[in-house]
Amino acid sequence: MATITHLSETIPQLSIDELLAGFHPSYRFGEVSFNTYRPDPNQPSQTEAVHKLTGFAESVGKSSSGSFLGKLFGKKKETKNGIYLDGGFGVGKTHLLASLWHAAPGRKAFGTFVEYTNLVGALSFRQTVDVLSQYSLVCIDEFELDDPGDTVLMSRLMRELSDAGVKLAATSNTLPGALGEGRFAAVDFQREIKTLSEQFDVHRVEGEDFRHRGLPEAPQPLEDSAIESFAAERYPDKTLAVDNFADLVAHLSKVHPSRYRQLLSETDVLVLHNVDTITDQAIALRFVVLADRLYDKDVPIVASGKPFSELFTPEMMAGGYQKKYFRAVSRLTALAREGQIGEAAL
């Protein structure tokens, strides 16, 4: 028999050590390696990325003359302290970054751009620097440039970590519709983080262009009266988190986003009553973080109400945070397809 819980009644409590323990590749990339990455033979940049990252992994934990202070005082830089993978969706950047994390020696952290900004919010900037300065490698997936404040925050964090000798690796997060606009880009990246960017070996990973693929078709929501019985029958031995959408959205404002991973720690399947369009941007951005954590953990969703293609307003989907919303809708839709029609979320 399925076990029933409610996320809207759960307050996760984490120590600093427990919070940091979550900075590792997600379930989807828990056992990947450079050997499990399958480069497209028609895209030599993918094979080149493997070679570059393999060499970079070997450099982790070793001293480098390319420190930030050395750069400022004009010392010649023999090696770069960071590597940055630029490319579109579906070319395996996260797989490659996770493979680097697995291959590198020493203490290391792996998280998304948003997770690091949330970590700073939970610990303070100075404590985050002090803690991560003890690591040999910090991997930042889905580096984003749509929030100037967060970009400046992360730029400063990366400069201080680089100065402390920490190796840095990052990937871009490019909206499919913007792939033709300039490769996310190295140009924007260099402009935003100025001197630090020059320490990065920026490598473009070419691959299939998914611009014309669009969002996967959202499954039709189920009748509200049937979703709990449907989920219990489909997942009889799982833990179901059953919540009214409005209650869950309200609860997210009371839980720091750095704790969303822990919030979902006991959840196998999410059952949502009466999904509706979110009109408040602050709430929408918190739900984006929840969507990422659900996707990381591969939590199927069974829902009633509106389809996830209508989760955000048209203005949000066309605004400055559009790539966040596009990603969230895509991921939630994939999880709903898995939960309701049994199609694995990729």
From TrEMBL:
GO cellular component annotations of the record: cytoplasm
SUPFAM superfamilies in alphabetical order: P-loop containing nucleoside triphosphate hydrolases (SSF52540)
InterPro entries in alphabetical order: ATPase_AFG1-like (IPR005654), P-loop_NTPase (IPR027417)
GO biological-process terms attached to the record: cell division
Superkingdom of origin: Bacteria
Keywords assigned: ATP-binding, Cell cycle, Cell division, Nucleotide-binding
Database matches in Gene3D superfamilies: P-loop containing nucleotide triphosphate hydrolases
GO MF, one example: ATP hydrolysis activity
Keyword ATP-binding appears in the UniProt entry: yes
PANTHER family per the UniProt record, alphabetical: AFG1-LIKE ATPASE, ATPASE N2B
Protein name as it appears in the record: Cell division protein ZapE
Lineage of the species this protein comes from: Bacteria, Bacillati, Actinomycetota, Actinomycetes, Micrococcales
Gene coding for it: zapE
